[in-house]
Sequence to fold (87 residues):
Amino acid sequence: MRALLYRRPGGLFTLTRHPPIRRRVEGTRRDDLYVQPGDPIGRIDICEAFASALVGDLSQLQAFDGVEIDLTATVLRRAGRIDADDF
Fold:
């Protein structure tokens, strides 16, 4: 499954199927990324360790930059997030 991994301001990541929504945080002068309603894999606050396990080197990603990844059982196993029995 195609997935998108975006760096959020503050260093955490968002993992989504569809491009995240960039909006101003209410009452502030900063933007953040939000998961589109109904996104089947939408997750916010993905830590850098897990994101690195999925794609490798993240040093080139700045806030609001993203990469497309092929999210497979093999990739998730390598990242340590599922057991072989899950598939």
